[in-house]
Write a sequence for this structure.
């Protein structure tokens, strides 16, 4: 019995050093592989910061479109505004929305467009401020074309009639949803 205890103590004292253990070399291999991968990417000429930023911005824009904007029906929004302007302002002021609309007026200076809902006899008009980046698209449009508008409702209320002002982030072709 005493002999067994002595053998155990000797075994404990003769343990392999950590650098001879399998787990140590696994860690070294992982760290080395990570470092080699990082250095090789830098040497291969990664895309410039601006190209990477542009690509990620474009991808983020598509993602934002799905997540950031609440789809609304412009005609129904004006009905809500007519029924209770205070509640509608509370619900939609500074909200990002997406809607389909019919072009009613195009500003000759390219600062805004006025759109109407798609319902028959919908004479309510939303004032949409546009940026210079939207001019090429808008210049190809005509009155009564149906477009998609995404933007932030910057003003909603009843100033000499019911009014909605949208600061446009995107204006483009009508998006037809498929079920």
């Amino acid at each position: 019995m005493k002999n067994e205890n002595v053998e155990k103590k000797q075994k404990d004292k003769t343990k392999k050093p950590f650098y001879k253990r399998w787990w140590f070399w696994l860690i070294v291999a992982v760290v080395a592989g990570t470092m080699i991968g990082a250095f090789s990417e830098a040497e291969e000429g990664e895309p410039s910061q601006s190209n990477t930023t542009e690509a990620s911005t474009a991808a983020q824009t598509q993602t934002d479109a799905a997540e950031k904007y609440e789809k609304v029906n412009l005609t129904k929004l004006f009905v809500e505004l007519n029924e209770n302007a205070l509640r509608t302002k509370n619900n939609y002021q500074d909200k990002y929305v997406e809607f389909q609309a019919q072009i009613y007026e195009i500003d000759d200076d390219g600062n805004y467009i006025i759109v109407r809902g798609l319902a028959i006899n919908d004479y309510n008009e939303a004032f949409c401020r546009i940026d210079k980046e939207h001019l090429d698209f808008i210049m190809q449009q005509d009155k009564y074309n149906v477009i998609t508008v995404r933007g932030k409702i910057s003003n909603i209320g009843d100033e000499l009639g019911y009014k909605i002002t949208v600061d446009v982030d995107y204006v483009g072709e009508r998006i037809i949803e498929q079920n």
